[in-house]
Structures
1.
Amino acid sequence: MRGKVIPQNEMKLVIPSRSANESFARAAVAAFMSQLDPTVEEMTDIKTAVSEAVTNCIVHAYRDTIGKIWIDAAIYDDGRIVVQIKDKGCGIPDVAQARQPLFTTGGSERAGLGFAVMESFTDRMTVRSAVGKGTTVTLEKRVAQRYRHDS
Amino acid sequence: MPVILESSDGELTVLIQGEIDHHTAAALREEIDRAVDSLKPEVLALDFSGVGFMDSSGIGLIMGRFQNVRAYGGTLRVVNPPPMVARMMRLAGMGRLGVL
């Protein structure tokens, strides 16, 4: 039986669902991720995916209110970064429908591409949601292994 | 969110600078719509050369402006998209709209 893989490093961030925090959240995860020595493109991919997930919390989960968003990120020796974005908002009644490109309940200025972007810009995305309880999105991406200092 | 507007010969060029997300898109939208409402340009050119980051909120911004100018017979053009903006537009299937 394989043991649990221990992260090389971890971070936790809790922010209120204010739109001004979108840039802060993605910049914080990007700064943490820089320990993996990613390319600019790899970092942009994670920043974009995190931005989409946090925006979903603000626009959908806590539509008419301000709630907390929990962001946990971990990096692993094999070059993976795993980011979990969790809210305790309204939840998604039909996750499969919400994941369809162009589906949105956010009005005419929303493209309905959030989940499609998260899926496309990462290696793996999972969504767990319960109506009235909240949603957890997990994003995973492997950064190409290059020379890194051990520390 | 800094925006530089230039208008000549029926073309309004909007040079967008900085990062586009749901937060910054709101102010951008207002500023662009105000200029479009008063000038009704034949061509609205959105210049993305100064954009350092864009998530799908930028796609909503482009789509909304596309519909606005098309409503009065104008056209929208997207100018100088950096690679990550072009990638996002391809993902959104915007090649079909002929704005690039």
2.
Amino acid sequence: MSDEVKQVLPLAKPMEGVSGKTGTWRVTKPVFHNDKCVKCRLCWLYCPESVIEIVDREDAFITINYDYCKGCGICSDVCPTKAIDLVPEGE
Amino acid sequence: MLNKGLTEIRFHGRGGQGAVTAANILVVAAYKAGLWGTAFPHFGAERRGAPVTAFARISKRRVRVRSMIRHPDVIVVLDPALPKLVNVFEGLRDDGRVVINSPKRPDFRGPWMTCYVDASKIALDYGLVMAGWPLVNTAILGALAKAIDFPMKHVTEGIQEYIGGVSGRKNAAAAEKGFSEVVCVE
Amino acid sequence: MAVKPLTGNYAAAWAARRARVKVVAAFPITPQTTIVEKLAQFIERGELDAKIIRVESEHSALAAVYGAAAGGARAFTATGSHGLMYMHEMLWWVAGSRVPLVMAVAMRTLGPPWNIWTDHSDAMDQRDTGWLIMFAEHNQEVFDELIKMFKVTEDEKVYLPGIVNLDAFILSHTTEPVDIPDQEVIDSFLPPRKQPYVMKAGNGLTMGNIPKDLRENMEMREDIFRAQERAKRVIEEVDEEWYRLTGRRYGGLIECYRCEDADHYIAGVGAWVGDMREAVDRLRSENGLRVGLLKIRYFRPFPREEISKWLSNAKSLIVFDRSVSPGSAGPLFLDVVTHTTLAGLRLPIKNVLAGLTGLDVTYEDIENVVLKSVGEVEESGTFRNFIEWHYGGEA
């Protein structure tokens, strides 16, 4: 009998996107312009969803994970050089 | 469409767009038109911007069914981008209606009748904006009224009663505009 | 008289307003919060002359309105789910001290896991507290029964507190037309508050001291038992009085829908009774099955005589529970089986556990269960199993 016991437990493991692709909530989209970036990392620090990653490449200092970015605009707001624009989604 | 016993409507919007309010106003309007109705939200991730649904049932007698709507007669889509994100057509009856906020004829096709109206533009024209978003729910209610032969007079009254004041009048005017501008295609 | 489109929660707030409550205290919890928000708005606009006591928990919320009620004020609170669990101890104090008080409970699943949908476990867990416990089917009934509950609880034959339960979201947040009678109508219906004693300054009185005589203590418990029994007649009389005033009557403790010629019966409490009505109509028109529906309005006091009367010629009964007592069965089923057995009835009774944790239940689901189960009874005279977990879809 014991090998038939299967418990159904209210557990979840930490993982990316447990609420699904929250990027679908976005109505405005942050667009990053590397030429204006001064590498201050404020956007990375302030992003409430941790979707900004410092990649420090030649063409881009950061990347934004649009699967989970909700488009709140905080990154654009805190950027001292206006290197992140907010544009309407779908344009 | 309202001649059959029970009309079941599912609203698709984004959290903050007023889908629940639209469903509620429809119940107010229905009562004025001598019909019974219920309106209820589907709370999941009810967050600003997240895809949300709300439901309404309209009937000639008191609505007693409480379960979710699985086979809607009508779907109302407040945001033109939603059909790409979620399956808004799920369970829609073949003889049903799609009422969508869209500036041009949408490219999806199906057995149902599709009614489209540029509700975002109407909302902006009437200055219906909150926290940067056009409030499209009343314009789309006008379009819905046209699509299901619901008496527009009562929609206007319902909006003014529910919202009230200057804003109520603006929203009622937006609904009238939605009613007159909606285009329905087979 | 005015018909307003209201959510179940707003209907509850309107009932408290029309009952002219003097004190409100509550702690926010989904799906209850909008009841007290609406009451706060009424008070702020000067439409209701009452005080809101802000508290740090549900335990304190009930303690606060309990104190106000003991002091002579008509008082009201509302909660649900974990809030009701946290309040649970105070429910015993209120009933035990025989202070009339009315509460709305927006029923919601208990965790874990966190879940905001309807489930009757929170309400059923108050079974033994001594409170009158009522389940509403729709928003009109939420309003009507809350008004009536003030009258029943303040009747000297009762003097017990009462709960009106409404299902999370499918009532609490569903908008539908509700008739709200004018204030004068309610004033003519609800007399000034009565209660067995009033705690006030200058009148030396304590309540709840350790008793010298335990026999007396047990008699207090028996008196609550008897008051619940007496409440049955009061509930029926108040229902009739409400009918004369508003044209709406609900049958007192119980309504039997399409029971006059029924062979097989189903029973349930709460909002999904509406879906059960639809299922009964369809089973009759499409399947030729003569099914009757026992809508059990009051769980406490339990309508044992009425249920047994309706079932005297029944071939079978299916009791739908939206909660369960693990290790036993659904609470509604347990009471029905106990009291029909005591009444000498010998019919097959089955417990269907469905809709727990808010899982959606449609009238088709109910039809499928009835068709399958009644088929078993017609074939063999009994059910194949007596406790069934039903998840929806094909039975």
